[in-house]
Amino acid sequence: MINPYSKISLWFCFVLMIWTGFFFYPRWNQSKTESTISWDVSGYYMYLPAIFIYHDLKEFGFLDSMIQKYGPTPDPQQIHVTQEGKKVLKYSGGQALMMAPFFFIAHGYALLSGQYPADGFSFPYQLGIGLGMWIYAFIGLWLLRRFLLYTFSDLVTGVVLLLLVFGSNFLNYSSIDQAMTHQVLFTIYVGILLLSRKYHEESPNSKYLGWIGILCGIAMWIRPTEIIALLIPLAWHIRNISTCRQQMQAWLKSPQKLLILFLPVCLFFFIQMLYWKIYSGHWLMYSYGNQGFSWLSPHIRDFLINFRSGWLLYCPLMILAFPAVFIMLFRTKNGLVFFIFIALAFYITTAWDVWDYGGGSGRAMVQYYPAISIALASLIQFVLRKKLALLLILFCVPTVYINLWWTYQAHAGTIQVSQASKQYYLKTIGRWSIDPEYNKLLDNNYIHEKPITVESLIYINTLDSDTANYIVQEASNPCIRLDAYHDKTKEYPCSTWTNRPRIIRASALFWCQEKEWDLSKQTHFIVRFFRKNIEIQSHMIRIFRFLNAGEKKRIWLDAQCPEAFDAISISFWNANSPNQIWIDDLSISTLE
Question: In degrees rounded to 5, what are phi and psi of residue 557?
Answer without folding.
Answer: -130, 125
